[in-house]
Amino acid sequence: MSHLNETVARLHREAPLTDTHAHPAMKAYLFRRNLWRRYRSSMVLNPFASRADFNRLESGGVGIVWSANYIPERQLLEDCFLLRVISALLLPAHRKITTGNPFDRLLEMMDAMEREIARRPDRVELAKSVADLRRIREAGKIAIVHTLESTHMLERDPERIDVLADRGVAMIILAHFYDNGFVAHVDGMPEDLWLRRLCTFDFGAGGTPPLTDLGRELLRKMVEHRMLVDVTHCTPAARAEVYAELGRAVPVLATHIGVARLRNDPYNLTDDELREIAASGGAIGVIFMTYWLSPDKPGNGLEVIWQTMEHIHDVTGSWDHVMLGTDFDGFTDPPDDVRDASELPKFTQMLLDRGVPEDDVMKILGGNAMRVLEAGWR
Q: How far out from the chain centre does Cα 164 lie?
């Protein structure tokens, strides 16, 4: 980080800078990427770009990554001929999505990520507990934490939580694009995305019970194994039932999301929900994708990211519940002014320029994420 401002570098190191939602594992598994190589990083939605490889993480001073493991739902290919063609041209990725057991594929993805970590054990390490996190950071290495995006990979079997707990999974995002048998989902794909003009997706958003009996069983298993719950992609009704089911027993998370007051969409959280999550001791990770943050969908994102975080602060009364959840490498369109992890120092400098005290900057960068892990993980 020698090229970084000294103050920014120190804050990233001490916080430590934590991205609570990024997808390096998906690139490592689907595209057989060596995460220690540099691949192209563009300013447009490009599924082949690399935004959270290890070199970019190191350049940006990132200390902890919550690495989201996600096997794309097969319905995406069934609903979209273009995706079927693209996938077929990428034969290894196509087979991993369309064949085999989704849960087994999930474990393979975790294996692939761990193989990339093992290439340079002197610079990065997998954390399976809070104690691991502290030890890895004290050694000056990047810590990777396994998380899951979507429960469809569980194939309606809550008992698989036992396996994931043994693998060190810290958190599960309950919903994604399609029905999973546990919880209802919103339409999680931007309406103006070019792909939607070429494909007819049948997401069936909101067409299932908000929280099924199987979903309640899943939540009980997650709490039993000290695995955090993330309500991103859930419908407002589903989120309300999750809050009620969990009570204040564990912190609730929404790791890559916006706020409804600034961008009115069921995907985003209302002010009452911001207060509910804060009351649980949880936190909200602001997504680095302007579509979900502003109806204007500006190319540059720092301003609307700031406005979203400031709103969370104003509603909850402090900076204690704000995090970063970039969604880098998640087949998303990042802001033009922060297109990958190496450019995250711009975000930190913006917080300082806005007058946020250093102690609060450190909370936003990683302190809040660590506090939530300490309260709800192992």
A: 17
